[in-house]
Amino acid sequence: MDTIRQIEELIEPSVHDLGFEVVRVLMTGGQRPTLQIMVESLARDPMTVEHCAEISRAVSALLDVSDPIGGSYQLEVTSPGIDRPLVRRADFERFAGFEARLETGAPVDGRKRFRGRLAGVIDDQVCLRSPEGEQRIPYGAIKKAKLVLTDDLIAAARTERRS
To answer: Rounded to the nearest 5°, which phi and psi values hold at 71?
Structure first.
């Protein structure tokens, strides 16, 4: 099992017990790497600095005990933000109707980059609608995906915060 997956499995139960879910775990950097843990509230409430600090303390304790990363690193706990990455199948369903950018590892229909409105997931393929028509990208082929910051997305985020 790779280190990132091991870390996800280690921290997920504790993060969940605090009322949050892990969106993504990412290791970046070279000499002094950063372990980024992206989380969001299970209730979809806005994230605060206090939330991030609480999660950071809990995760740090778990990582100190199990020590899955050799050497020193910087721990960073963040929220996904409004133009969040899309990492799970459920994200593509949840944000249907919003504009997204996708990048595949290998070309799909001669392209590696796609942009359009998410139209859900059908038969393990992410559906995008763009001026060129509907495109279906195999979920397993997606290397990176994120929402595009648009007026629609900003309006939806404001509405979600009020409710």
So the answer is: 90, -175
Q: What number of other Cβ atoms are within 10 A of residue 17's Cβ?
A: 9
What's the order of all strands across the beta sheet hosting 74-78? 20-28, 34-41, 74-78
pTM for this model (two decimals): 0.83
Does residue 163 have a pLDDT over 70? no
What average pLDDT does the segment 25-47 reach? 90
DSSP letters, 28-89, are E-SSS-EEEEEEEETT-PPP-HHHHHHHHHHHHHHHHHH--S-S--EEEEE---TT-B--SH
Cβ atoms within 10 Å of 77's Cβ, excluding its own: 23
- Four-residue CA torsion sign, 106, 83, 18, 89: negative
Order the strands of the 99-108 sheet from edge to edge. Answer: 133-138, 125-130, 111-122, 99-108, 142-147
Are 16 and 41 within one domain? yes
Q: In which domain, by residue range, is 134 found?
A: 89-162
Stretch 91-113: mean pLDDT: 95
Q: What CA–CA distance (Å, rounded) separates 106 from 83?
A: 24
Same structural domain, 49 and 108? no
Q: Are residues 64 and 103 in the same domain?
A: no
At residue 25, does pLDDT exceed 70?
Answer: yes
